[in-house]
Write a structure and sequence with these properties.
This protein is of the alpha+beta class and 86 residues long. The protein has helices spanning 9-16, 20-34, and strands at 4-7, 52-56, 59-66, 69-77. It contains two helices and four strands. Strand 3 (59-66) and strand 4 form a beta hairpin. The radius of gyration is 12 Å and the shape is globular.
Length: 86
Amino acid sequence: MAYNIIYKKSVHRDLKKLSKPETKRILDLIEKELINQPKSNPVLKGQFAGLRKCRVGDYRVIYALLGLDILILRIGNRKDVYKGEI
């Protein structure tokens, strides 16, 4: 089953804060692995309940499954990505 990837506008700002190699590594993972098995990643709790996370080294990709769409909400370092609102 193929999923469509949709990026929230704020993800562009998140990616600009990262180095080019890290950005490429994260986007490659999203395009190759996350698109094929989005349900294999853990569901979050607390204020992010219902959302899922994908681990890429010290970085996390926070996303939601909406039917056949994967909505990427936030990308950032694990120490900062869970702070604030999405």
